[in-house]
Every structure is written in structure tokens, then in C-alpha cells.
Amino acid sequence: MNIILLGAPGSGKGTQAEKLVQNFNFEQLSTGDLFRKNISEKTQMGLEASKLISAGKLVPDEITNKMVEEYLKNGNKENIIFDGYPRTINQAKALKEILVLNNSKIDKVILLDVEEKILLERLVGRLICPKCKRSYHLKNRPPKKEGICDFDNSSLETRPDDKPEKIAIRLQSYLSDTSPLIDYYKTEKKLVKISVSNLTSEKVFEKIREALKL
Ligand code: AMP
């Protein structure tokens, strides 16, 4: 089963993808993580994407689709969680074509719906482990030892695109470029909406399991 986690930045896509990978036989494909890997390895694509990402803007579809196509060419095409991809209608169409060529498809799209006020709170205090990619929050989900990852002792970092002025640009881009995907996947009868504003991440996970019959 292939699924898409759809939702604004800060809606908890990464956290839920992590839980699905830990508990079931899923592999996470996060285009954000792939871009950050390319940036840290200073590849040509990483250099091109870096400026856009730190400005809070989307990387062009052509580059993003090619990266996903390459990823899927070299590996598994089943049991994938698409986290942060697709983010535009063009990307959704490209993904459909790539999967059709592999005799595969998207089975369900889980929309994690959060009120904007809560998104801002979550993004402003977010801390990320650069090594294992786990996400923490200064207030809501602090690490056991201040500034240090519970799992591998790395120093936690704030993402450059989690600065308040960049957050506003990313939320705007979600509204204009990504939210049309909600209707797109509704029409395809694949969308399940979960309202997550007042739910713990454990409760959200339970709802995702229900939706996926896991
Ligand atoms: P994320 O970790 O999913 O929040 O992604 C971080 C940043 O990477 C985004 O703000 C974009 O600049 C870029 N990015 C990630 N996924 C995509 C995508 N599907 N299309 C375009 N840009 C993306």
C-alpha cells in the first residue's frame, strides 16, 4: 500500500511517517529530507535547491519530480509513505505517471488538517536532529537533555526555513500551491481528512491506523 501524507508545514507529517515506519512495513520518502541530504553533500542539485529552500520557497516541479523518479527507479515501489510530496498538482500528475509505469498506484491520501494558529506555534519552537531527523519542540516535545537528541546525542538544530518570516512564506505556498491537491484527491476518492489540532500524536496515529485498516 502506498500512501501520501498531505498537510501544511508543521501538521505532523514527519512524526506520523516515523511512527508508520517503526510499526509497519513502510518506507518513508520525504522530499524535504532528500533535498537536505543533497545540500549537506553539496551536490549540484543541492546547490540549486538550497537558496529556494532557505527562502521558504518550493523547488521547481521539474527538479523535484526527477529526484522522486530516480529514487523510485532504484528501489522499492510498494509500501511507500510520500511525506511532503506531491506539493503541486503537476507533481501529483507526475507521481501518478511514474507509479503507473511501475504497475503501482497511490492507495490513500491522509490529510492532516490543523488550524493555522497551532501550525505557527509548532513551527516556531521546532528543533530537528540533523542525524536521525527526529523532530522535537521547545515546549510541546522537549528532548530529555536540553538541545540534545534523545536517540543519538547529536546537537539539535533549528531549520533555517523555520524562522518566522520564512514560515509565513511556506504557509502561503501551502495555501496557493498545495491545498488544491485536497480536491484533486477527493475527486480520485482517495482522501481521508483527519482534524488533528487538538489531538496528541498518539491519537492521530490511531486515526491513521483506522483509516488504513492497519
Ligand atoms: P519539508 O521538510 O517537507 O518541510 O521540506 C522543506 C523544504 O524543501 C520545503 O519548504 C521546500 O522548499 C522543499 N521541498 C520539499 N518537498 C518539496 C516538493 N515536493 N516540492 C517542492 N519543494 C519541496
From TrEMBL:
Residues 126-161 form the Adenylate kinase active site lid domain. It catalyses: AMP + ATP = 2 ADP. Keywords: ATP-binding, Cytoplasm, Kinase, Metal-binding, Nucleotide biosynthesis, Nucleotide-binding, Transferase, Zinc. Residues 125-162 are annotated as: LID. InterPro entries: Adenyl_kin_sub, Adenylat/UMP-CMP_kin, Adenylat_kinase_CS, Adenylate_kinase_lid-dom, P-loop_NTPase. One of its GO terms (molecular function) is zinc ion binding. It is found in: Cytoplasm. AMP binds at T31, R36, K57, L58, V59, G84, Y85, P86, R87, Q91, R159, R170. Signal peptide: none annotated. Pathway: Purine metabolism; AMP biosynthesis via salvage pathway; AMP from ADP: step 1/1. Its main location: cytoplasm. It holds the Pfam family ADK_lid. It comes from the Bacteria. Residues 30-59 are annotated as: NMP. One of its GO terms (biological process) is AMP salvage. The keyword Cell inner membrane does not apply. One of its GO terms (cellular component) is cytoplasm. Zn(2+) binds at C129, C132, C149, D152. Its EC number is 2.7.4.3. Catalyzes the reversible transfer of the terminal phosphate group between ATP and AMP. Plays an important role in cellular energy homeostasis and in adenine nucleotide metabolism. Belongs to the adenylate kinase family. Consists of three domains, a large central CORE domain and two small peripheral domains, NMPbind and LID, which undergo movements during catalysis. The LID domain closes over the site of phosphoryl transfer upon ATP binding. Assembling and dissambling the active center during each catalytic cycle provides an effective means to prevent ATP hydrolysis. Some bacteria have evolved a zinc-coordinating structure that stabilizes the LID domain. Monomer. This is Adenylate kinase. It comes from Spiroplasma alleghenense. The lineage of its organism: Bacteria, Bacillati, Mycoplasmatota, Mollicutes, Entomoplasmatales.
